[in-house]
Specification:
Elements: E1 3-7, E2 11-13, E3 18-25, E4 34-39, E5 46-51, E6 57-58, E7 67-72, E8 77-82, E9 91-97, H1 107-111, E10 118-119, E11 123-128
Parallel strand pairs: 2-11
Antiparallel strand pairs: 1-3, 3-8, 4-5, 4-9, 5-6, 7-8, 9-10, 9-11
């Protein structure tokens, strides 16, 4: 059984940076798609970065140019580098995996939580002004 464990969340000042990590135990196939989502209280879960086996990445406009997703298949680890953080980035951040092989990233997979069937427990990011 695959389990995902996120880390790296913290409280930072606006303009600061954080790097989130997500380690997969149980083995993640290198051809699957992986993503980071976030959810603030009272809001829907939204994608903030997704990556497929070829390294293709997608981001919503709200984080484009500030966030960067990457993966280390040898270490079964997913990363999210977050720069120029804003108070509106405050949320619980989750990593997620599409449980199929040979996943090709598109806008639907990048943004739809329903496309992902393996989730971590989340790590809290709080950005103060």
């Amino acid at each position: 059984e695959v389990q995902l464990v996120e880390s790296g969340g913290s409280s930072v000042q606006a303009g600061g940076s954080l790097r989130l990590s997500c380690v997969a135990s149980g083995g993640i196939h290198s051809s699957t798609c992986m993503a980071w989502f976030r959810q603030a209280p009272g809001k829907q879960r939204e994608g903030v970065g997704a990556i497929d086996k070829d390294g293709t990445t997608m981001y919503p406009d709200s984080v484009k140019g500030r966030f960067a997703i990457s993966r280390d298949n040898a270490e079964d680890t997913l990363y999210l580098q977050m720069n120029s953080l804003k108070p509106e980035d405050t949320a619980m951040y989750y990593c997620a995996v599409v449980g199929i092989r040979n996943c090709v990233l598109d806008t639907v997979i990048a943004s739809n939580p329903a496309a992902y069937n393996i989730w971590g427990q989340g790590t809290q990011v709080t950005v103060s002004s």
